Every structure is written in C-alpha cells, then in structure tokens.
Amino acid sequence: MKTTSKAVNRPNSTILKSVTKPGRYAGGEYGQIIKDKSRVKARFAFCFPDTYEIGMSNLGVRLLYGALNQHPDIWCERVYDPWVDMQEQMKLHDLPLVALESGDPLEVFDFVAFTLQYEMSYTNVLNMLELAGIPLRTRDRAEDDPLIIGGGPCAFNPEPVADFFDLFNIGEGENMLPAIVELYIRMKDAGTYTRASFLHEAARTIPGVYVPSLYEVSYNADGTVHAYTPIYDDIPKRVTKQIIRDLDKVYFPDRVVMPYIETVHDRIMLEVYRGCIRGCRFCQAGMIYRPVREKTPDVLNEQAKCLFDSTGYEEMSLTSLSISDYTQLDGLCDRLLSWTDENMVSLSLPSLRV
C-alpha cells in the first residue's frame, strides 16, 4: 500500500456549490462504516463505475460492503464515478478520486475493486483509474500500486478488459472477496508478500480467482482463440465460478448506508432467491446465476424486519429475476403483510411473469 505525503482533502464547499448534486460527494451518510485506519490491516476501495445514484441502488454493493466490513482487519469504502462537472473541478484543482468514508485517495488502498455490471461501464473504469492516478494497464503498475479486482456479471467474459485488471473473481463474492483479502493479510504478516507471489497464490488456492497474467493465449490461423494455457502447473486450467449454496446462512446486511439524495432504488431490497428456472438462452442473468437457490420465508421476514427497523423505509422490493417463480411466495407475503400494513410499508413485486 502506498503512502502519500501530499495533503488530500474532500472537495471544499466552493467546489461543491459549483456542481450539480453535491450530495454525491459529501459522504457522512447514516449507516456508513468508519474504522480506525491504524487498526486495520487491509483497505479495500469498492468502486461502482457509474454515478452515485445508480451505484447506491445496487444490491451487490450493499451485500459486499457489509460482508467485507464484518472482518475487523478489513475496511471497505465506497467510490463512485463523478459526474462530468465534478471531473472538470477535480482536474482544475488537481484533486484525486477519493473514497467517501475516509476521503483518502485510491492510490493509498491495498485493493481497488470494480463491479462490472454492464459493458458500457468499461470506459468509466478506465476514467476512474485515471482520476485516481493509478496506471491503467497491469504491466505498468509498480509493486506498491493497489491491486485491481474485477467482478460482477461481466467478469464472466473478462478478456476484453483483461489488460487492466490484476485479477477477477468469477462468481458470487460474499465468501471469495474476504478470502482474497485475508490471503493478502497473511502474506503481509508473514513477510512473504510480493505482487507476483500473491497473484500466484490467489490463483492457486482460491477457487474462482482468475489472474490473466498467469495464462498464455494461443490463436488459430483465423485469429480465433485456440487455447488458454496456465504458465504454472499448480493453477487451474479452467476457472470455476463460485456460488453460495445456502442463502439462508450467507451474509445479508441488517442496516444499509442511507443516501442524502434521491437514488434510483431508494428502498429496502430483499433478495428472495438467486437463479432462474427458465434458462432462456438470450438472458445473461439466467445463465450466470444458476442454479436456483431460495431463501426461506422465515429468514426473509426477519431480514426485512431488521432493515425496516434500521432504515425506516416505507417501500420494500422483493428482489429476484422472476418473483412469481419463488415457490413460497404466498407464505412470504403473508408473513410480511402481518406487520408491513400497520407500519405503512408497501410491497413491490418486480419482474413479475404473466
């Protein structure tokens, strides 16, 4: 992890007054997680390569932010892509891209991770790295530069952006991301860490980790890919996506960060199940989130109560790819309605199949 002697502050009030929606950059929201920097062993910048309003609405960010911060040695902070007016101010005043919680620049973090939700965000990833002063390509990064991680749906086809990422996590990250950071901490504590040795050890020991630099690509005469060959015998020839088998036992937040400004989905998002029974070949989500795994109504009801108590939201969305395919929908709705009506909480059932 780099250190910097340069004084770095949040954008001051004069700058914030000159941009639209300054609440995007202020930080300090209710529910954010603050830790003592001197007591953590690894710092993790979780980047959503789009604006604050979109990133704050993403369920995956809420899940992984909490899952990482459960660990006392890890501090995960949030970063979003500034809107163009703020980018102009940052360049004018020589301000780097910073995390919302601490206000520290990304270059001082151990990990800078991007969730790749859609291909149109790829240029935003490069823009955020440039604003942070981090070399774009893996081969140009120094030993003390942050490790750049890619994950999310688009990580299933990582090759278009493989030159820019040190490693990818393929599959669901609630267990995999903490395992990656814990390996980093162990190697640092043991004095065995180097950038190359860590990437090798992560690819060797953590299922679902893909390190592009550890594979050689050969091509056919027509330019199509012939084979991906590992450069070491002890790393997998094929990376296997990781899934959470029991959703009742996996981490789910009992509180979330509450935004100061209106976001796209400003409500409780209750994840009911993952996967889809349909298997439509045109649907990316239906393929990559297989197999179908459901939460039980009792667990969902308790999670919903916890989030209502901690947030006061008046709307709850039952999140899934097709809520009408949830096999215990009637029982779940009965449990929720037993307390949501009297508390004036509305239920939203998106992705209904007619």
Task: Write structural notes for this entry.
The protein has 354 residues and is α/β, with parallel strands linked by helices. It has 2 domains: 218 residues, Rossmann fold (3-Layer(aba) Sandwich); 81 residues, Transcription Regulator spoIIAA (2-Layer Sandwich), CATH 3.30.750. Helices cover 30% and strands 16% of the residues. The chain contains 11 helices and 13 strands. The strands form 4 sheets. The protein has a 6-stranded mixed β-sheet with strand order 2-1-3-4-5-6. α11 links the parallel β12 and β13. α4 packs parallel to α7 and α10 packs parallel to α11. The longest helix has 18 residues. It is globular, with a radius of gyration of 21 Å. The chain starts with 12 loop residues before the first helix and ends in a 6-residue tail after the last strand.
> What do the pLDDT scores average to?
94
Low-confidence stretches: none
Query: What does the largest sheet look like?
Result: 6 strands, mixed
CATH-level-4 superfamily name of the largest domain: Cobalamin-binding domain
- Architecture of the largest domain, according to CATH? 3-Layer(aba) Sandwich
Into how many domains do the coordinates divide? Answer: 2
Helix content: 25-40%
What is the chains' assembly state? single chain
- CATH topology-level name of the largest domain: Rossmann fold
The first-level CATH class of the largest domain is given as: Alpha Beta
What is the helix/strand order? HHEHHEHEHEEHHEEEEEHEHEHE
Number of DSSP helices?
11
Tertiary shape: globular
Strand content: 15-25%
Q: What is the number of strand segments?
A: 13
Distance between the termini: 52 Å
- Assign the structural class, choosing from mainly alpha, mainly beta, alpha/beta, alpha+beta, or little secondary structure: alpha/beta
